[in-house]
Amino acid sequence: MLNRTILKALPAGVSAPAYDPATIGTGIVHFGVGNFFRAHEAFYVDRCLALAGQQGWGIVGVGLTAGGRSERKAEQFAAQDCLYSLTEAAPDGGRAVRVIGALRGYLLAPADPKAVLDLLADPSVRIVSMTITEGGYNIDETTGEFRLDHAAVRTDLASSAPTTIFGYVVEALARRRAAGVGPFTVLSCDNLRHNGDVARTAFLGFARARDPDLAAWIEAHVSFPNGMVDRITPSVDDATAGALNAASGLDDALPLVTEDFTQWVVEDRFCAGRPALEEAGVQFVTDVTGYEHVKVRMLNASHILLAFPGILLGYRQVDEALRDPDLARLVNAYLELDVIPRLDAPPGLDPQDYRRSVLRRFSNPAMADQLLRIGGDGSSKIQVFWTETVRCVLSDGGDLRRIAFGIAAYLEALRGADETGVPYTPTEPTLDATQLELAEAEDLGAALALPAFDGWRDIQSPALTDAIVTARRAIRDIGVRAALVQYGGLPD
Ligand code: NAD
What is the 283 CA–ligand 1 centroid distance (Å)? Predict the structure, then answer.
């Protein structure tokens, strides 16, 4: 079994931490010890811990959910001294395996809430980070406010024994304030635009409802940096875990695989200090907005542009869809002609390099990324990933064909069968049955009333409506591939 005693005798090709994990201190507490955190933040901190003077920045993970799976994970971490192996897989099949030692403890909050609060109140803790999923911040989508009516939040506001991350963090900040211990930085690593601002809204929303004085102190002293995080990290099932262990020669209960690409761009606002992450590859900036734009408009936008027609053509994985030359041409032409000329990239970021890196990453078979997952919740994703580009192309009179084809493919894919007749279930959590039926309406323009297209409705473009309806008709009459060739390539 993987644990500290075998670090000096790891199988050939597996790198050990370049420091002694038994001797590091705790500077960071992390909520939501999922795969992404283990492949991303913990990976960077692991690199930092190997540098002189950085050994106080070890991480203690906290799990908030009770139940068998969480307890099993806690037992597995304890048995392995919180060590685990991370396999970085390149698209060409190259692999590097390292044991990560940055996690020095793991606490299951429902089993020992006092230990979690004591730790959070400890002056050595200077950053509280989190990956609690996009929906974990409990923000009302329509008002943009923290939802005080949520049952667990109401319970936490009424008692001094917290159960939510908001309850724990705000109670800990109250204790630190009362004891004269300074604040810590609250660092969101979830995939949200301006994730620090979202976290700030959430924690301040909770704090205001609990104690306005405390909220004012938090507002004045706690920093919530925005960060752009990027590293595709799939979930690991038993078969994948077995294959990872067979390849590494380790007996690891918690092995992970991730891509060889990684990026973390963070605003340098840490109220209580931070590790020397810049020496571990993290990019510190004053404003993360430009990086978020590039990621959303290039990586996320082309991911769904590949997914919708890819699903219709019968593909199920991202890498296999990208190996289809017609789909690759569509994505390339979209990035080259529709996005890049209208993109305000931050200084030092070359959009052409970024385009090549996106396509290289999508081609990685080790990620085994599912097109149905990528294309799921298309309604929300289109609003976030395509809107700015569509608005730009509409306002400068650009070529609408690729955009029209992408939208047409989305609407056809909503019908739940690929062109070979194989059925699948599209995931659209925000659409009701009546809205979904619009995709089946005889009037092929009726579905343009869906919220996915709200972002450019005010521009009122009959040309785009016509192009979408014509593209849908083409997909049905001449088939997805012929329509793709007609619409998806370079201009005539
Ligand atoms: P995961 O399922 O492995 O882990 C999610 C973790 O969050 C679990 O530990 C879970 O217990 C915890 N969690 C969920 N809801 C919570 C809540 N309300 N309060 C507290 N804890 C909660 O998933 P993952 O792959 O690690 O992804 C987590 C997040 O990381 C994503 O939602 C996304 O924002 C971000 N991310 C993931 C990737 C990726 O490729 N996996 C890439 C970039 C960013």
Answer: 22
